[in-house]
Amino acid sequence: MAADLHAGDPRIVEIGALLRADHPALGPVWNCRGVGAFGHPTIDLAGEPATAHLLHPTGQTEIAVLVATFPRRGT
């Protein structure tokens, strides 16, 4: 989202480059341009697979919360 809102800011470009260098497999996440485009990618969270969700709790596109959830386990 920041890449869209602040495309000309060299700090945003640098952050994107660092994220891609550290975790190239998450390229679709780093390239995301909106909630719909984000989807529900599976990420590694503390060695366990988790599903990521991008939320806009205030309805403002410049404010987003990334939430990761583990799959439901049987009880």
TrEMBL record:
Domain of life (superkingdom): Bacteria
Protein name: Uncharacterized protein
Source organism per UniProt: Protofrankia coriariae
